[in-house]
Write a structure and sequence with these properties.
4 strands, single chain, 4 helices, alpha/beta, about 30% helix
């Protein structure tokens, strides 16, 4: 049975909240990479269309466009040590080479709950992953 590591929203906007967990997440991720186990990241953000009235996204309605994370902004970017971890590997968990800087999937999302992306996760789970370890 293979276990996948899901790392949720480790982005610049949340840096102040990661003092304790970031070293532990990097330790887990290093273990998963060393053992060729799958790692999946999520990244929260809102498109320009979502940040433009009328606001259809519930979070943008709640926090307003200035209180939301704009896709492509500094706040939206992954925390540097997480970005460095991702770019420091040239192979995916399955051993295939990647042509991009991201050897691991980064799933975009625009809601608090990363598990609302379960459709995508279930597709990956059907491949061979039986358990999920979540961090972030």
């Amino acid at each position: 049975m293979t276990t996948a590591l899901l790392i949720v929203d480790m982005q610049n906007v949340f840096t102040s909240m990661t003092t304790t967990c970031l070293p532990k997440i990097l330790h887990l991720a290093t273990h998963f990479r060393a053992n060729s186990l799958p790692i999946i990241f999520t990244q929260h953000g809102h498109s320009k269309a979502e940040l433009t009235p009328p606001f259809r996204n519930q979070l943008v309605r709640k926090w307003g466009p200035s209180g939301s994370i704009a896709t492509g902004s500094h706040d939206w970017e992954l925390i540097p040590s997480i970005a460095d971890f991702i770019s420091s590997s040239s192979t995916k968990h399955d051993g295939s080479k990647t042509g991009e800087n991201s050897p691991y999937p980064i799933i975009p999302k625009n809601t608090y709950d990363a598990f609302l992306i379960r459709t995508s996760l279930l597709c990956w789970r059907k491949r061979r992953w039986k358990e999920w370890l979540c961090a972030g």
